[in-house]
Amino acid sequence: MSHHLIVTIARQYGSGGREIGEKVAELLGCKTYDRELITMSAERGNMSEEALHKVDEVAAGSLLYTLAMGSNSYGIHSPLSYHLPINDKLFYLQSDLIRHLAEENDAVFIGRCADYVLREHPCVLRVFVYANDECRINRIMERHDLPRNKAQDMMNKVDHRRSTYYNFYTGQKWGKYDNYALAINSSILGIEDTAKMIADFALSMKYRLEQKEN
Asked: For the structural domain made of 6-213, what CATH number should be given?
């Protein structure tokens, strides 16, 4: 039985995780989904895209979502969902989209707790990309034209935001090694070779799964 191959990329800020995910998708011949999920969620939920961008990867600070996520039996159109904070609504909408897209084709998902959302998908490679602080700071400095101290501050703040968001919505710990099949330091191989390693790993994983099922 053939399953769609899914790769999820969680990443430290400045590690090159987004670029790596895009190159993995190129190597696998599939689509990458990242911030475009916000646009798709806005359209699907008939909500303001600008408002959703403001709460992207920001935890709501509400316990309402736990009631809705408990058995995963509530859909995004359930009565409860209309009373959720906008952060939680975005999480609902994105999660529903991620599951739907994963059923349609091979795909690479960057961030958005996709590793947790697709935890029951039969063929998903969960990846965490990290890098040495010096490499991350230099990349942030170059990308945003910032001095070192401001780049380091941005690195720490974004990592904290992503960690808080992931921990809040999944009940798991962001970056904890046993949440992922592959954790890789992009400082060692660089963007291109890190992407190639992940793509090769993903294809080998899918091959072994299909052999086991056959």
From this structure: 3.40.50.300
